[in-house]
Amino acid sequence: MKLRILFLSGLAVVIIFIIYLITLDKKIYYIALGDSLAIGQNPYGSTGYGYSDYVSNYLDQKELLDFYTKGFATSGQRVIDLIQDIEENRKIEVNDKSLGLKTALIKADVVTISIGANDLFTQMGINDMTFNLEHKDKAYNYIDEINENLDKLLKIIRIYCKEDIIIVGYYNPLAKLSSHYSRELEPLFLYINEKTKEIANHHHAYFIDIYDIFKENPEYLPNPLDIHPSSAGYEVIATLITSLIEREIIN
After folding, report:
1. Helix boundaries (H) for the chain
2. Is residue 204 pLDDT above 90, yes or no?
């Protein structure tokens, strides 16, 4: 009888431990990488609640969040800058402890990346929401260069992160400034989104297409003199990401 009780007690402990491990494994270590969109810069120059914060909040409400940081994201960051950050193992302070980017990538279950816009805007001469359409024909070459760097970036990230990577696509930030710009630049943004999606697929990463939803909702870019989304714009990006997470990652 005592042996049976000991056996059942031991079995119960094992079952509880297995349930603990299963529950623990479902927790998500989430890092957001990239530029000012990853940070959550608002249309008026300050940092607010960005799409990664909404994603983090969603995971937390689902009791799925293990860890979250957007501390590696930097306003103005280009693809080549993020490559350098990884190669140099950039470090940030989290809860009074040093966290290296390579370590964060190894631990990450989900990585979101919004990057490339600064590369494109610099090459195309977009400054203070102005643009010379003479740059348009050369822009395809710029886009190809950006995506070559993106391919290199994802190769490097895949050395450390074997889990889920989500790439956020591009919207046309000049659409509200001028309908003429919108028409002229639409083929460029369709092209860069198409090529970025191809590279994401090649590296077994997900791609979030936000072009049409921003085109159809110009209120998401309320300041015609700034490229950054409103809170509602960031929230809709987050909704697309969390829908993908729910559909493809946690189920």
Report:
1. 2-25, 36-39, 51-61, 79-87, 101-107, 117-124, 136-160, 179-202, 211-216, 231-244
2. yes
